[in-house]
Design a protein that fits this description.
single chain; mainly alpha; MetI-like fold; 75% helix
């Protein structure tokens, strides 16, 4: 039995190590090209370490492009999406999991089915809806469709539905209504799951490109992914600037992930494990 467990452990370690290497090598390569002079990037394309270290690419991005404006725009969009999605998901998930009302399961299945619809298919109806509401070329016009994605409701509902009934009954005996039970009992107990959802929304909103490209028209509202496209589409592309901008755009989401990685794992595990 010990031999079988050891072989399984070695196999898992090997597979996960290979997956980690495959995931991190492109990041190391991009970071190396960020600090490589533009003239040397194509010549040393396969190198993982810069031959001549320079900060010109980073400073050039800041000087030639409104990079920090793009970053602020992305932060605004992501913040709106996070606040709206977390708030709505908590309320809707509690209703689906703990309250009894007619058509609850059918409506939840519709939400669940919408998760299988590709994001790009929604672009045309979203465009007409946002145009009718006057939200095109605005930050809410980008953030609200992201916040409407049903993954938050699904993740929190799976946690709430397995929440011990005895704790809820004890709170109701003490005179707590449904809203107070949710705020004072469910929300504090579900912080790992909420944290995982916040990280997911942040990464998705920070990197969202397709709908932003359609919805945002004015240069003052461009987010980071659209800004990177502008750099790539410029005449006489300087690959050093492109690598520098990509590296700077990656840093916030990478920092958030590294800081909250334990909460992400705990949230995913608790979403279906609590009994």
């Amino acid at each position: 039995m010990t031999g079988r467990v050891t072989v399984k452990s070695v196999l898992y370690t090997t597979v996960f190590t290979i997956a980690a290497i495959v995931w991190i090598l492109p990041l190391i390569w991009m970071a190396a090209k960020t600090f490589t002079p533009t003239a040397d990037i194509l010549r040393t394309g396969g190198s993982l370490l810069p031959t001549n270290v320079t900060l010109d690419n980073l400073s050039g991005v800041i000087r030639k492009w409104p990079f920090f404006r793009w970053m602020l725009n992305s932060a605004i969009v992501t913040s709106i999406a996070m606040i709206v999605m977390v708030t709505v998901s908590i309320l809707a998930a509690y209703s689906f999991a703990r309250l009894k009302w007619k058509g609850r399961n059918v409506l939840f299945l519709l939400f669940l089915a919408s998760m299988f619809v590709p994001w790009e298919i929604n672009a045309i109806p979203l465009y007409f809806i946002m145009n009718f509401l006057g939200l095109l070329n605005t930050f809410p016009g980008v953030a609200l469709p992201i916040a409407a994605m049903p993954i938050g409701i699904f993740l929190l509902r799976q946690f709430f539905i397995n929440f011990p009934r005895d704790l809820e009954d004890a709170a109701r005996i003490d005179g707590c209504g449904s809203l107070r039970v949710l705020i004072q009992l469910f929300v504090p107990m579900s912080t790992p799951v909420i944290g995982a959802l916040v990280v997911w929304v942040f990464i998705f909103g920070w990197n969202e490109f397709f709908w932003s490209m359609i919805s945002l028209q004015g240069s003052a509202h461009l987010t980071l992914p659209i800004g990177l496209k502008a750099i790539l589409g410029a005449q006489n592309v300087e690959y050093g600037l492109l690598f520098g901008a990509s590296f700077l755009a990656l840093c916030p989401s990478l920092i958030v992930f590294l800081l909250l990685r334990k909460r992400i794992i705990a949230g995913i595990s608790l979403s279906g494990a609590i009994k």
